[in-house]
DNA sequence: GTCTATATACTGATAGAC
DNA sequence: GTCTATCAGTATATAGAC
């Protein structure tokens, strides 16, 4: 049975490589032309395959888009995580907030992927997928956890100056929504008038966490568990 | 020439009626199946026309979608405007904020229309439209003004309690972004974990405009120009 | 595992008859 | 002003040969 085993391992790793090639091609297409322009034909052409062959490695277009979305989400988090080490809580919050919006604005396709990959292409997406869970594949349970966690952790470092905020979790959600909203409005092709987003974010953070609670008092911010 | 004039008037009003019929059908389709499912063929079928005839009244699918988007935006504003008469500024702000999000969540298709109608269908939208402005039609210059105006007006009523916010306009933009973000995250089909939006909005408004600036002091809010 | 060929179902838009 | 017919594409997905 050793031979069968080895063959199985080999085919698995080959399959993994092919999936990677497919995802690479798909990513390039989305970056160049947007999620809406992603199609099995284009991917196949890009890697010199026939469209039919892609279905060996992915269930369909949607699964590919979702995979790219997860990737993008991890990239976004990776961008923010180092900022969690900034010692001063206020600085840290500012840095994370601006970095979040900057990422969204600088990588609109990826941001689109993160938040839109599912619903795309309404009519087809509404057909139920009757497939009863493809055989074999371990099927990761991965759904992206919400970005508000990172924000909530940072916010809890700001609680002191004046018995401030009741519920850090709620405020973190609001903050996240605000940042998401700024990105979406900036990317929206709608002619809605908008100010530059930098000052908007600063104004919001200031009004939320500014040094206004007791005028004259020093900033005095706790900085819990921030290494280095 | 009187006859020609009358004929012209008649044909104009007929054309207007037909446009309305087309928009009605389009609106119904979008409400039922989403913007992505809107197509010229479906509209034509719904009103018993041939697809070709629609091009007499509209330049194409995009123009129809944009018209629906403008409509939706006006409906949203119409929903909010009466709330601008609430005398107490804080109450007014709360009412508007919650109404805004409620509208977005209760009418996801319309909200989609308002903010997405343009970019839809990437590849086709990227083709430049070479048509040199269809003859005759007066061509309204309407682009929706930004919803932040309404918010800014209300915010300026909150400025008093403690020399509060530096720039009302910026804060209004942030507030708008936050509300938009809440709607978008609520509508996103992504499995991002979220709290119910009501408390999130309240927490945000509280932290922004709450009665925390000087503990013990009465609310003391100006209420400028709010009739009745 | 990969291909060709095809089934199926769209799409927006236009020419030209009536 | 409206239609039929059609151009010229798009797409997902699958059957069956090799």
What is the strand and helix layout of this fold?
Two copies of one chain form a homodimer.
Chain A: H1 2-33, H2 40-47, H3 51-57, H4 61-80, H5 89-106, H6 108-116, H7 122-126, H8 148-155, H9 168-187, H10 197-209
Helix pairs in contact in A: 1-2, 1-4, 2-3, 4-6, 5-9, 5-10, 8-9
The structure holds a DNA duplex (18 and 18 nucleotides).
Care to describe what's here?
The structure is a homodimer of 228-residue chains. Chain A is mainly α. In chain A, 61% of the residues lie in helices and 0% in strands. The longest helix of chain A is centred in the first third of the chain and has 32 residues, at 2-33. Residues 120-145 and 212-228 of chain A have low confidence and may be disordered. Chains A and B meet through helix 6, helix 7, helix 9 and helix 10 of A and helix 6, helix 9 and helix 10 of B. The first copy, chain A, binds a DNA duplex (18 and 18 nucleotides) through residues 11, 14, 18, 39-41, 49-53, 55-56, 60-61, 121, 123-124.
């Amino acid at each position: 049975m050793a031979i069968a085993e080895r063959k199985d391992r080999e085919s698995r790793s080959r399959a993994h490589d092919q999936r990677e090639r497919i995802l690479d091609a798909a990513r390039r297409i989305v970056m160049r032309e947007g999620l809406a322009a992603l199609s099995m034909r284009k991917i196949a052409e890009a890697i010199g395959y026939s469209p039919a062959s892609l279905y060996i490695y992915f269930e369909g277009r949607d699964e590919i888009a979702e995979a790219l979305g997860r990737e993008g989400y991890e990239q976004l988090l990776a961008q923010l995580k180092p900022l969690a080490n900034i010692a001063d809580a206020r600085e840290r919050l500012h840095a994370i907030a601006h970095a979040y919006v900057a990422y969204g604005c600088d990588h609109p396709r990826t941001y689109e992927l993160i938040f839109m990959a599912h619903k795309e292409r309404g009519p087809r997406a509404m057909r139920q997928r009757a497939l009863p869970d493809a055989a074999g594949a371990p099927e990761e349970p991965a759904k992206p956890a919400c970005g508000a966690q990172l924000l909530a952790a940072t916010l809890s470092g700001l609680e002191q100056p004046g018995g401030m905020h009741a519920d850090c979790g709620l405020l973190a959600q609001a903050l996240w929504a605000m940042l998401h909203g700024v990105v979406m409005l900036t990317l929206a092709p709608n002619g809605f008038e908008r100010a530059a987003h930098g000052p908007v974010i600063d104004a919001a953070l200031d009004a939320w966490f500014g040094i206004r609670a007791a005028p004259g008092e020093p900033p005095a911010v706790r900085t819990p568990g921030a290494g280095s």
